């Protein structure tokens, strides 16, 4: 579309084309709203790619590399028991990264095709909110500033890695999570600041490729947001895999020299020094709200840069919404942003379908995976709830043995009196897939007996969920 004939007025403008943004834009268009989506993501070659961090430098990129890492590890460690012989196994990092990039390109193109199919106006540009009706557009080629207007504006600009002053990124030896998914070689010794979801996922990849991997976590508790029985099982499994988890380790400084990084950190035993080939900073993410709105727009942010919204994702500006990683309504996970994108689009069209934030599943894409929904045992006990617990080990399922993936457990927490399912927590292969049944059961207010009376195919990994429910079955 030439600049002369460029459309400048829309029903909805979406700023950002990550999961929250592209989902919202597509749903708006499906509901008959004239929609524009503006995004500024560029890859390291300067090429525009839809999908945001989630697709280009986050979850999709991570799980693509993890699949390669699992295959490599299996070839080196698990083939003999199958009677299969393989020799001279090696890794071509460039080809592996190309496979990952090809997956990203294909999925990004699917989003672009969907924009075309739904007649969404897509602009490769920087966008800045001027007021509740206007957005300033600066094309990435700096061809000139223009103005767009809309009845509704949806902010979905995502988040970015938090930088640490004690470990300044140099893009070579000290890197962030995005760069850690684009390494040109397997580091011999690797340290990661942060043993949360991102740190663990990166550690799972490079540890599987043979890198000596050390995680430095400032908190004393491992995976404090997860059920602690599952977290302790995860700690045991990851440690046996060779991950070195150092808790209560607060990094003081990180300096490069002689093609190494010297990391200094403190824990309860004093000050320690660590020398590694690469240091990954994975200490969390921050909302991308810098320069998102002009000062005169008076968009309300909190002290950490999150956009203030109500339970309907509405900002303090009429007709302006914020979704995904920009808000504190839920955790920074892709499916939360997607649901908010759909919710806001339907709300604009006059459809009301509230989001149940209490039943957002969480997943850690490690090997094995961790997944959970609902409340944890420690949280329920702290509230004084009367509960009962059923667990079932994956090594009691035939499918897990056939797949040589017997590590892990399924845990169901139910109310002691009503038998309502309050939380389900899983560590094991395909935990991310198994948790969907638990989410559906809880969404429809199922009891543990409902799960126990549901026929599950045998042999499957899902039989472990059935087994956990059977341990809770009332007479």
TrEMBL record:
Cofactor note: Binds 1 FAD per subunit.
List of catalytic residues: 458 (proton acceptor)
Reaction(s) catalysed (UniProt annotation): N(6)-[(R)-dihydrolipoyl]-L-lysyl-[protein] + NAD(+) = N(6)-[(R)-lipoyl]-L-lysyl-[protein] + NADH + H(+)
Tree of life domain: Bacteria
One Pfam family hit: Pyr_redox_2
Domain FAD/NAD(P)-binding positions: 10-341
GO MF annotation: an example: dihydrolipoyl dehydrogenase (NADH) activity
Domain Pyridine nucleotide-disulphide oxidoreductase dimerisation: 361-468
Keyword field: Cytoplasm, FAD, Flavoprotein, NAD, Nucleotide-binding, Oxidoreductase, Redox-active center
EC code(s) of this entry: 1.8.1.4
One Gene Ontology cellular component annotation held by this UniProt entry: cytoplasm
Protein name per UniProt: Dihydrolipoyl dehydrogenase
